[in-house]
Amino acid sequence: MPDLQQLLTDSVPQVAPDFDAADIRERISRTERRRRRVAVGTMAGVVAVVALTVASLQGQREDPVDVADPPATETDLSQPEVEGLTPLSQWPNPIDFAGVEVAVEVFDAPNEPIQSRVPLGRGEAGLNYQPSDLAEVGNTTMQAFINRVWFGCGTGQVVRMMESDRADDAPAFTGPGSSRWLPAGALLAAVEQFSTEMGCVPVAPAGTPAAITHDNGLGHELAVKIDQAGLVTCCADSRPVGNSPDRLISLDEGSRWSVLIDDQVLPLTFGDRDAYPPALESVQTSLVADGQAVTSPDGQQIAVTCFDTTTIAVTKPSAPTKDRFEQFLRTIDCQPVIPPAFVNQVALGWLQDSGVPVVGEVTETAETVSVTVSADDSELEIRAGRADLLGLTTATLTKLAETPVVVLNPDTDGHGAAANCGIHFGIFAQDEQGADRALELADQLRRHPGCDGTIATPGAQEDSGETATTATDLIAALQASGRDVTDQKTNDGSATFKFQPTADGANPVDIEAGAISLPPGTVTAQTALVRLGDGEAAQLDDRSLLFLCDGLPIRTAGVEPDDPGLEWIAELPAVAGYTPRPPGISEPVQDPSKADEQVGMSIREARIRTAAEAMGMTLCCGDPSASPVTTNLGFIWEGIEVYVSAGWPVTDLPEYQPGQIIPFADGPGGPG
Amino acid sequence: MTHESAEAFCAGIRAPLVGSLTLFCGDRGVAEELAQEALMRAFQRWDALDAPKAWTYACAFNLARSRFRRVVAERRAQQRMAVLAGDGAVDPDTTSAVAIRSAVADLPTRQRQTIICRFYAGLSVAETARAMGCAEGTIKALTSQAIANLRKAGLDVDTTEEIPTDA
Questions:
Q1: Among candidates A125, A121, A119, which has minimal Cα distance to A104?
Q2: Do the chains contact at B100 and A11, CB–CB below 8 Å?
Q3: A24-60, pLDDT tens digit by residue?
Q4: Phi/psi of residue B88, nearest 5 degrees
Q5: Cβ contacts of residue B35 below 8 Å, gap of 6+?
Q6: Residues of A349-382 as b/e, b for ≥16 C-beta within 10 angstroms?
Q7: How far is it, in rounded angstroms, from Cα A407 to Cα A429?
Q8: CA B144 to CA B40: how far, in whole Å?
Q9: What percent of chain A has pLDDT over 70?
Q10: What is the pLDDT of residue A382?
Q11: In 3-state terms, what secondary structure has residue B3?
Q12: Which backbone phi and psi does A529 adopt, to 5 degrees?
């Protein structure tokens, strides 16, 4: 079988390019020359733009100058510096920026109103945004904004960029998802690119209003994100989303408005941190778009907070609407958190779920809640809410940002533990004994379904960086392979269905996929592992199989070891193209190599550690590694490094028989 | 680090860097332009870099992900490649090479980046993690996912390096 490295190298041989270090240094010199000229205010790309559009100056290209040249002087004004640039006159017009045609024009001064000053990575620009014509889409009125950006590039002239080839009076919409104006964000990116090319720092034209000010700051960042994402906004009550002098899009607190996602209208409301739908007074938590949300007990409303201050809510989140809501949040780059207005309520709810009785009064501020609970013989003070208000040291908070549960430093924080569930918990004990109970409670909170929602996966605390397979993906893969999937029921990202194997006489297999909540301790180091196709699954006490397909938890009906049903079930991951692997243990195990951190790990790893530690072996020698069916760990055993590779198939080993005594080092080792 | 080591660094990294970016964005001309830009930035802050290899790859991939920059790079590259036309450019377009590049191109961005860094550029897990700004465990997970996807795409690849453990 070919080696991947060789395959890749064969596909693109590593041939030295034509450039070398000298070319790189020459490139640096060119850049520095250009920057220095801009810095002394003598020359910029716009001069070149203007000059090169005038026939008399075409072709007056200056030779490159050395870095050691003296600073440019006023006389340079008549000698446009275009070295290193493609003259604008030679560019196509309109210019294609990432597939979007942008018209670039130069004027002596803006000839239209500029409503907004927009900061860029370097410099700033002015933005002229005008609401488009309204378009009726069913019962909804739709509206977008026609954006034009203006900026200076080092001279008295100013540049205007706008989407090209569209008449000013052209309708923005002819229907959902139809033509729409280029969002401001795309134009601003084009400005940054253009100014970089021209070697200037863009400046907003004279007369551009000062930095945007807001009466209350509501919704500005949200509006900008929506505009930059190019989403089409509309209003559900035939009242257009209006513009105002200080905002790109005006979103009135509490008003209903909508965005178009996949040509479907998604109705939303938003408000600040204190504004939320009253129906959410009693809440549950759920996972939405890689973040946390609160939902009303009847499931009819869902609310999240984006960008620190903006709470967005959607009503009646039926599955399609919830999917569109998640898509909307991802499109505007929002990783939602529980709205601040709900944090205290949620924290108290989780504490209540943990079963610890609250003793004494509940003390609340706007962003924290403090209670005393009784745990065994200890009284613990619990503070929940905004992390920096819990009385924890910076070191602990830093650790808490990386690890969901930490033990407090008794010398600086006091005895206790802390948990990060989006909502932060500081659990303070009076003594060392109480600290153990605090740690248990922190673990318990961490395992609350609202905290991480699903079973643990090996290395679950690491961000895989990829979107995991969903239940919908799994069903689609099965159906694409021609397998019957019946009795489908989907709910909040999870699904149940029957899968029909192809084996003769096979019965449909009941499958549950997605967010599977299990009581703490369901999967432990002692949980049985059974071979399933080319991977493995955990077999729970009720004989059901639990395994992951690309991160998607899947649970099946109970099956006995010799039951043909095992082969039937194995067809599912095989058909869908996954190697099944068991879940991680949901009970965190102390990792002696990481001090007070708690880490998740695979069943096999936990089992090896338990056995090895019982033999007096100490974990050592690098990070554990694993494939879906093996685990490799290094230990120190009486001064010797011992590497344990467990699972199947463990290759390159003699075929020992169970019970056989193996000569090892200076003496007999354990059974093979 | 000395000036000389920057020169040596460039000589050593330019071929795999250009190749990596070719695999990443599918165009050698663009890749050369991006590699030069990344190396220029590395040179400019050479004395401050404690891991220039990882930094340069990180910078190069960041550049490659910027579509606007890529458009400019393409324009420059087209001009330059027009001059260099017929200048002995390597074209390994055998059927299998096309299939491999296609399978790599179809990987999700971070999986593609991981595979290229680990198996083409020869970066260690730690260097790849640094280049991609994530934990080493994430690199291992991404590697595993990427190999699984390459297999799904029909590539018959060796499994011995499936979970590199040189962390």
A1: A125
A2: yes
A3: 888 777 666 544 333 222 222 222 222 222 222 222 2
A4: 75, 25
A5: A17, A19, B14, B17, B18, B21, B60
A6: bbbeebebeeeeeeeeeebbbbbbbebeebbbbb
A7: 11
A8: 33
A9: 58
A10: 93
A11: helix
A12: -110, 130
Whether pLDDT at A492 is above 80 = no
Q: Do B116 and A577 touch (CB under 8 A)?
A: no
Judge: A24–B110 Cβ closer than 8 Å, yes or no.
no
Alpha-carbon gap: A623 to the closest alpha carbon of chain B (Å) = 7
Pairing of strands A291-295, A368-375: unpaired
d(CA A198, CA A207): 23
Quote the pLDDT of residue A350.
Answer: 84
Task: Using CB atoms within 10 Å of the CB of residue A392, give its burial: 0 to 12 exposed, 13 to 18 middle, 19+ buried.
Answer: buried
What are the φ/ψ torsions at residue A515 (nearest 5 degrees)? -75, 105
Chain B positions in Cβ-Cβ contact with residue A1 (cut-off 8 Å): 156-159
Cite the beta strand spans of A414-471 per DSSP E: 416-421, 423-428
Fill in the amino acid letter for A528. Answer: A
Two structure tokens written together for A628: 């879906």
CA distance B40 to A23: 9
Report residue A215's pLDDT band, with 50, 70 and 90 as the boundaries.
very low
Report the alpha-carbon distance of residue A432 to residue A416 in Å, rounded.
8
**pTM of this prediction?**
0.40
Nearest-by-CA chain A residue for B44:
A28
Cβ distance B120 to A12 less than 8 Å, yes or no, reads yes
Chain B positions in Cβ-Cβ contact with residue A19 (cut-off 8 Å): 14, 32, 35-36
> In degrees, to the nearest 5, what angle opens at C-alpha B150 toward C-alphas B146 and B155?
155
Instruction: Locate the chain B residue with the closest alpha carbon to A189.
Output: B68
CA distance, residue A613 to nearest chain B CA (Å): 23
> Do residues A226 and A259 lie in contact, with contact meaning Cβ atoms separated by under 8 Å?
yes
Q: Would you call A77 helix, strand, or coil by DSSP?
A: helix
* Dihedral sign of CA atoms A83, A87, A90, A94 in order: positive
Distance (Å) of CA B15 to CA A23, A572, B20, B28, B88: 15, 44, 8, 11, 15
For A282-348, give the DSSP string. Answer: S-EEEEETTEEEEE-TTSSEEEEEETTTEEEEEES--HHHHHHHHHHHHHTT---B--HHHHHHHHH
For residue B25 the two structure tokens come to 């964005």
A77-130 pLDDT per residue, tens: 222 233 333 445 555 566 666 555 678 888 888 988 887 777 777 788 888 866
Provide the b/e sequence for A434-471 (b: ≥16 CB within 10 Å).
Answer: bbbbbbbbbbbbbbbbbbbebbbbbbbbbebbbeebbb
Q: HEC profile for A159-190?
A: EEEEECCCCCCCCCCCCCCCCCCCCHHHHHHH
Nearest-CA distance from A87 to chain B in Å? Answer: 12
pLDDT per residue of chain B (167 residues) written in tens, 0 to 9: 444 588 889 999 999 999 999 888 877 877 888 899 889 888 877 877 778 888 888 878 776 765 444 444 444 444 444 443 333 333 444 457 788 888 888 887 778 888 999 999 999 988 888 887 777 777 887 888 888 888 888 888 765 544 333 33
| CB atoms B148 and A465 under 8 Å | no
Q: With CA atoms as reference, report the closest residue to A170 among A162, A160, A159, A181.
A: A181
- Residue B131 tokens read as 């280049």
